[in-house]
Design goal:
Layout (H helix, E strand, L loop, with lengths): L1 H26 L5 H10 L8 E4 L5 E4 L1 H20 L1 H11 L1 H20 L9 H20 L9 H14 L3 H10 L4 H10 L1 H10 L26 H10 L19 H6 L1 H22 L1 H8 L4 H15 L2 H13 L12 H28 L5 H27 L5 H16 L1 H11 L6 H11 L4 H22 L1
Helix pairs in contact: 1-6, 1-7, 2-8, 3-6, 3-19, 3-20, 4-5, 4-6, 4-19, 5-6, 5-9, 5-10, 7-16, 7-18, 13-17, 13-18, 13-19, 13-20, 13-21, 13-22, 14-15, 15-18, 16-17, 16-18, 17-18, 17-21, 17-22
């Protein structure tokens, strides 16, 4: 029995560690786009969109604004796919289980990296489906990994936010590819290697994850993957047969133990609507910043390639810190779980109370980031990069953790997908903003940055609403106890 329990602990530890590595190295690599664009320009992708132009003083120069616009469009479509198709991924995960969702995700991710490997300046159009496939495959890997937090009870939110932080930090893979390219290793070789790594994802799917999903709260004697049959004594076997503790049978979403909100009630609640607005406005700011970082640095450095490369590298290196920053948000949300709850307070109410500080801090950081990004001072961008990665790690980790505590776990995949899909529609505005800056504002993004900073103020409504919601719950609880 002790050997089996040790084996389970080792298995859960391996599931956690390999999931972290998977998110850190593969899941969110599309958000390192600024690093890859630098290499793609060197390889003359979309070079046909560069045209000869005449400046005001009569000198000739090569105007590559059309090329930048194509790169921005590639990222806009990929980031939209990353979010909008999360809704489909969530339904697949909730209804077909982990194995099917992961195999689909791995297939998309591998197709995308292979397309990148075999693309060229003559086949620049391949970037559109390639980056979108990588994006969709990556988010499916993240969704199926976040359930690992259910294995660790009191550290559940911490692990969910840690995985989201790793997802953010994985954008540094494109920096690694950029540095390898500068050392003489081709894009073809780098992306072929990433494609071959999909074999590891498949093996992990088969041996270290359940076929369906990990339930929460976790039943006693729960096993998955390569389970240990010795855990079940004859007495436990009788209990198993009557209570269906097997991994495929423990989580029956059609028969919840306690009355829960329906999916429709969840999406029509003000709690969900304000959360969607909170995520959408902050995410739009981040997407526009990442998608226009290269041309913005070109403008601030007067087109000096070495200086642009230095700032792109600095930005990519700061992305690595996402995995270090995100767990702090989880610790904020889990801080109450080691303390006794107030009499009559439900676990969900306690979780919601803890989420208020997380939502507020994320909103404040988003405002600071937006203000810094709007100031056209080149050295200040180092600080902007730091605030951006901290805010982004708090944003996505907090988003997943909030959905997991505010709504029934049986709806997690669908609600997570829906909130990401809704925010994806708003994120399409980034391309309109880029076109506005290029055509109407003559390359000066100041007014767009000011407008986005004002839009960020909407994000502060969400933590305020959650605070009022929790206060109403406390009032109802006190009223019920007094009766």
């Amino acid at each position: 029995m002790a050997d089996c329990q040790n084996r389970l602990r080792v298995q859960r530890g391996l599931t956690f560690v390999t999931g972290l590595v998977e998110c850190l190295c593969f899941a969110g690599i599309v958000f390192g786009w600024a690093s890859l664009v630098f290499v793609l320009k060197e390889e003359d992708y979309f070079v046909s969109f560069c045209v000869n132009a005449t400046s005001v003083n009569g000198s000739q120069f090569l105007d590559c604004g059309g090329q930048d616009e194509q790169f921005s469009l590639v990222f806009t479509i990929a980031s939209f796919s990353n979010n909008f198709l999360t809704l489909v991924s969530g339904f697949i995960f909730d209804h077909l289980g982990t194995t099917v969702a992961r195999l689909l995700g791995i297939g998309f991710h591998t197709m995308g990296t292979l397309m990148m490997a075999f693309s060229s300046s003559a086949l620049s159009v391949l970037l559109f489906p390639a980056l979108s496939f990588i994006s969709v495959g990556g988010i499916m890997l993240l969704i199926t990994n976040m359930q690992v937090g259910n294995l660790f009870g009191t550290r559940r939110s911490t692990i969910i936010t840690l995985y989201n932080g790793a997802f953010d930090s994985s954008s540094a893979l494109f920096l690694v590819i950029k540095l390898l390219y500068e050392s003489g290793i081709s894009l073809h070789a780098s992306f072929l290697f990433v494609s071959v790594c999909s074999i590891i994802h498949v093996l992990r799917t088969l041996f270290l994850l359940p076929k369906t999903f990990i339930p929460y709260p976790l039943p006693d004697h729960y096993t998955y993957g390569l389970s240990c049959s010795k855990l079940r004594t004859s007495k436990q076997s009788m209990n198993v047969s009557s209570q269906k503790i097997e991994e495929e049978e423990t989580f029956d979403c059609k028969a919840p133990v306690t009355p829960e909100k329906s999916f429709r009630e969840c999406i029509l609640s003000r709690l969900f609507i304000w959360h969607l607005i909170w995520l959408s406005v902050i995410q739009l700011r981040h997407y526009l910043f990442i998608g226009t970082l290269n041309p913005t640095l070109q403008m601030l450095t007067d087109g000096e390639p070495s200086l642009v490369s230095r700032y792109i590298n600095a930005f990519a290196f700061t992305q690595l810190c996402g995995v270090l920053c995100a767990p702090w948000n989880g610790l904020i949300m889990d801080r109450h779980k080691r303390k006794p709850r107030v009499k009559g307070m439900s676990e969900q109410e306690a979780d919601l109370n803890s989420s208020i500080l997380s939502l507020l801090l994320t909103s404040v950081m988003a405002l600071v980031f937006s203000v810094c990004a709007a100031i056209p001072i080149l050295p200040l961008q180092y600080f902007t990069f730091i605030v951006q990665v901290i805010n982004r790690s708090f944003l996505y980790g907090g988003n997943a953790a909030f959905i997991s505590v505010a709504f029934p776990s049986r709806h997690f995949g669908k609600l997570y997908g829906l909130v990401m899909a809704g925010s994806a529609i708003i994120s399409l505005l980034q391309y309109a903003c880029f076109a506005l800056v290029k055509s109407v504002l003559h390359g000066d993004p100041l007014y767009v940055n000011i407008a986005l900073t004002l839009l960020i103020l909407l994000a502060f409504i969400h933590p305020m609403f959650v605070f009022l919601h929790c206060r109403n719950l406390a009032s109802q609880r006190a009223k019920n106890q007094s009766e």
